[in-house]
Amino acid sequence: MSLIRVGTRGSALALAQTTAIANRIATASGSEVEIVTVTTHGDTSRESLSSLGGTGVFASALRESLLAEECDVVVHSFKDLPTAAYPGLRIGATPKRADARDVLCARDGLNLTTLPEGARVGTGSPRRAAQLRSLRPDLDVVDIRGNVETRLNRVAEGDLDAVVLAAAGLSRLALLESVDGEYLELSDWPTAPGQGALALEVRDGKLDRTLATALTAINHSTSQTTVMAERLVLERLEAGCAAPIGAMAAIDDGLLFLTATVYSPDGSRSLVSSHAATPDSHSIAHLAEAAQDVSNRVSCDLLAGGAADFAPMKVTS
Q: According to the model, what pLDDT value does residue 80 have?
């Protein structure tokens, strides 16, 4: 393959992360790489993510472009992808995951503890909104849209007291050093399944050998496994973006650990489940089996504990 075309959304963040991946593909393949920008409905609409339908709103146009053979691989933020398989497409690689934490970016060096009562905190995520209301029910949680810079500017201009953003996005935009933010640790503040990870999606069937070689070189098996475990919980409990779910998976000392938390939208209730599995080996197949096992036990726990009684969700097979 003399030219590999990489599809992406046109936002600054999407272009930053896609450019980094395109450079890695070029190095691994020795081929010329072209970035193809695709406009999605999620990029042009100002409606809330909930009203737009949540997951998938940023992915559908990219996927259509891939199926139309206008590009050879597309780069998604994993947390933007619906969990259901998309006919004719598959995930070709999961690069090494970036920092999965959220960051509270507040005015005047404030943090989650010192924000004054009634402070306006912006987020477009139902999961983050539920977590904020759970920890600080006195805050005014404001539903917002817009890119990272737009959200940060609303704090700088005094319209908001703080916003909650993904550490990975700030890092990819080289904004971490300029933002005096508070990292929210995963043990207390689990983030969206797959946050910080990218998905490289390709068409089903046999790939061009050059592209296949590059994707194999880029794939990171640990990230692939932990993201899979988190997203399998979301798949089994999913009700679109209306169910605030946080998840964190990690491989440590030969064990795959998974913790997931379901919140009520108003933050008044939450339910946590944690389990571990021991993969028979570190092969992709055995890691995938462990991810299936641990995610199934966590999901069953959450449902048995009554998560569906206070969070909008359904069980999928």
A: 87
